[in-house]
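Hi C.,

You asked whether I'd gotten around to modeling the 149-residue construct. I have! Everything is below, sequence then structure, no commentary in between.
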Amino acid sequence: MKKPFAIIIILVIFSCKNDTPLCDEHSSPYYSSIIGIDFKEKRHNTRILGENITIRKVFKELTIKEKNIEPNNGFITLRIHLDKYGNFCNQETFEVDSDYQPTEFNNGTLIKKIRKISKNLSNWTNDTETKTFYLIRIKIKEGQIEEIF
């Protein structure tokens, strides 16, 4: 009688195990303040070591090299998804011109370079061990990268 009972207990324990891969969990924005299923307020903060300085340094070479970007004005937004330990999961990109219409800068070659650089960002920290995303915005003005924020 003890063996079947022990087997049932073991099966129940293993069936309750969370097999959801870290990158498939629900994402919360880096700026959200209430995290968790218990609804206790926890300050949530995802950041990269060195913050904006680090991000600007990583993109500095691209900023210097990329001139005569077409269309001349607009914005690129990167949404970098990070697992609960701060590891890169994936990213989404959004490109709009100065009229906020979808576009591709330099026929899609600029975004490929940006995605490659951002994928290699490391040293992320996450205060609450919750899957999150981080936004990086790039402003293009008069055919060159003017600002990264």
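If it helps when you're writing up: The chain has a mean pLDDT of 81.

Thanks,
B.
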